[in-house]
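Sequence of MFS transporter (Lacticaseibacillus chiayiensis).
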Amino acid sequence: MPSKLKSLEPWQQNLAVLWLGTFIAGMGFSEVSPFISLYVDQLGNFTKGQLSIYSGITFGVTFMVVAIVSPLWGRLADRRGRKLMLLRSSLGMAIIIGACGFVHNVYALIALRFLQGLAAGYIPNASALIATETPKAKSGTAIGILTTGYVSGNLIGPILGGLLAQTFSIRLTFIITGALLLIVFVLSLTMVHEHYTPDPRLLKKEKRPALLTQVSNPKAIMVLLVSTAIIQLGNMSIYPIISLYVKELMHNVGPITVVAGIIAALPGISNLMSAPRLGQLGDRIGSGKILVSGLIFAVIMYVPQGIVSSIWLLGFLRLMIGVSDGALFPTIQTLLSKLTPVSYTGTVFSWNQSAQAFGSMAGSLAGGFISNIFNYNGVFIFTAICLALDLAMVLIFIPHIWSSRPKQQE
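Predicted 3D structure, token representation.
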């Protein structure tokens, strides 16, 4: 493999290595996430209510911290380079997630999950490095390909984690995940190359102008960041109730957990297949067209999910949601990179990560709250309304995005 990598252009070599790194990182993160509540249950004698509260805190504290600290890491990335942030994140996550396998009370686990939020940032910094090291004309394609790395890792992770937890234990799954992330650290250290010259004012630790004062269209930047939060809110609002909805549609008969797992995986499968192709299409016709079309398509696909009576139809609609995600998240990253000066790419990508983390936290809470009031159906309708409002916001505040051609976006 190393000899083949040497024959590639530098940006292609980075893409190949970071694809593997984000694949392992995505797999490692998703290996343990489905089992956090089960692990919490092993750490004490809790009532059902206590278990729900502790599990929610353990799951949510990481997103809360990520939302707060990501801009700080982004500024450091712009000062010292994105590769340093890749090393910080992968090594920190390796140590912290591995340590989770050794805790014996829920408070220690919550503390480590808090620290995990401080160590987060591998995937957005990989995206930022690819965005700055890749020729602008190919950035949409490259980011779309990179997206398939962590999406495919997220698909395989829960399956591998389930097998590891069943064969060994949840504790050992945390330790194995830490070892996988240590591999990511070594790959990033030895095989990722960055040719980046930071803004001299940053090296002198001078206070540089704020990001929004250095871009030609600050309104577009803010709209894209809000879009990230809304899209992720929609994704995460479904996450807490999807298995319960499957159980209801199957009338509590049959292999419910197996079917629920398949239904949950379907968006990732179609995302994996669609993201690179949509990235290439965006490079040809304009990323703005892909964003608007993706939002329209998502609204159309979410509405019927709340009124279906067939598990097969739900599966098809969830598969289509992966296509819309393949159009939305990579396209937003591409537009942010094209609208932002190179010296601020780390900052804007860290803001994007904060927006995504905020959406994750808000979506989880919204899904539970709305399902209690309007049943599971209401969650899908709520998500469709949020995405429709996001579409309206994009068209109202950055109306030129639909007609912009690739050269104008660069």
